[in-house]
Amino acid sequence: MAFLKKVSPEPVGHLIEIKSDPLVIGRLQECQVILDSTGVSRKHAEIRRAGDRFTLVDLHSRNLTFLNGRKIDPDDAPPVLSANDRIKICDVEFVFFPMEPKEPTRKPTPHPDEMMVTEGTQDDTSGALHTLDASRSSSMASAVKPEVKLKAILEISRKLSSDLKIDTVAPNIIDALMDLFPQSERGFLILIDQMTKRLMRKGFKYRPSKQTSLIAPYTDEVPMSISRSIVNHVIGQKRAVLSQDAGADQDLPTSSSIADLKIRSVMCVPLLAFDGEVLGIIQLDTSSRKQFQQEDLDILTTVAGQAAVSVQNASMHEKLLRNAALERDLSIAETVQKRFLPHTLPKIAGYEFFAFYQPTYEVGGDYYDFIPLPSNRLGIALGDVSGKGVAAALMMAKFSGDARFCVSTEPTPMAAISKLNNTLCAAGIDEKFMTMSLSILDIARNRLTFCSAGHPPLFLRRADGRVEELGDEITNFPLGLMPDSDYGQLEIELFPGDVMVIYSDGVTDPRNSAEELYDSKEHRRLIKRVGESSGGAEAVGKSILQEIREFSAGHKQVDDITLVCFGPVADND
After folding, report:
1. If we measure between CA atoms, which residue out of 296, 231, 242 comes closest to residue 270?
2. Beta bridge partner(s), residue 186
3. pLDDT for res 159
4. Which of 281, 361, 426, 520 is deepest in the core (most CB within 10 A)?
5. With 0-12 CB in 10 A as exposed, 13-18 as middle and 19+ as buried, what is 267?
6. What is the pLDDT, as a whole number, of residue 247?
7. In the predicted model, what is the mean pLDDT of residues 96-110?
8. At 555, is the secondary structure helix, strand, or coil?
9. Among 507, 499, 502, CA closest to 532
10. pTM of the prediction?
């Protein structure tokens, strides 16, 4: 198996086994070798395998890839790598080895907050690790008097209760534990990221022994890795571990990670939440045998219990802070979104207008607008983006401007809605579409021309109470689903006392306590309510909303509600 060895910049000596084909090098987290140096492209270069040979390919990086001082042309045939070839990417340089070099090498340094778990062999994760009662102790282990230990525990408790930031508390805990157990060479406080399940190092301290060390003499690398066999046991069994000689103990599974790290005496305890969930671990270890006793494990377990409470409190505090910040952001977003909607209703002699908008959350995906047009005309748009919340609101914000542009530049509603559809399709927003009703009112002629893209039908309540349901015969796909769709349009005449009702499906979808829809094929409540409502546009709109509130009383709102009513005022108004 081939390897890369890092030779610059510091720290050097990291050895990377080329397991993947290809092995991608770059800044992205999905790369097999992640470099955070300035100038490295997201996917900078890759090493490919061809039989028993390896080639180096530049992935059209911004700052090029160099092999033995010569730049790699991404369009040329990739060069074959030979032993001791030097690969340079920005300020990072590797040496290629077709097989593992014989000289000792270092393991990769993890991200400052990410804990590296030494893989070892397959046996690392399979054996049962037993908690051992080590009754013998060295002179160093018993050097700390009981009253000093009690004082240290009280000091740790004080530190845990004095700060709600675990990144601040954790290093202080490890410092105190290393003082409490002077025989310790390494101390870890590691938390489990609840989203990724990765081990995140929050506290670490290394204090090499004068006699022996957890690190090989050929390098000055700080040993920050931890054995998988010990970690898996403590997390999986939720039990503390104490071993006087982990490397030679017959009760421990054969573990190359323990041997590689030269771990001898070790204490590792879980951080347990109130419900028994493992939040992380605390571990102290040394490269010397017989350094800890059962009393030490009891003390460490006590500290771990207090630390677990502190971790939970810190987590809840951070969650409250995030929620507060989110609420502030949503409040700002709500204010911004309302500015995309009309501030006032149109004031046109002989006409009455009514509009109502209420999102399910702080922001929503419904949209309506009144668009003044030349030749004494008015565009009236009402749209409904699929979904709710922030994503729908962002799409609505974009299309409020697009709709105004298309309505203002196209001669008819169907031409404008066709252009809007192609605009949305070209945007390539996955799993998002938008229904829309678009009308143009010719005020002088009292005629309304309208078009529908998958939107619910319009209701026209005539002055005598008759209700006409309009638009089913001309509707087509919602915007954003099918490019170049053909849309039709209808033209109707409005008379004094007529009221046109346009709405989103939030008007028809409210439910009552029995989970029945307000409007359905079996119960056409909306059209009935429109026919029973007397008066002009405002009276009809308020009548519809009042019935919806009464119908859905006690049930939360499930969709954004938008309602627009308008029409010529009656002759006697």
Report:
1. 231
2. 206, 285
3. 63
4. 281
5. buried
6. 55
7. 64
8. coil
9. 499
10. 0.51
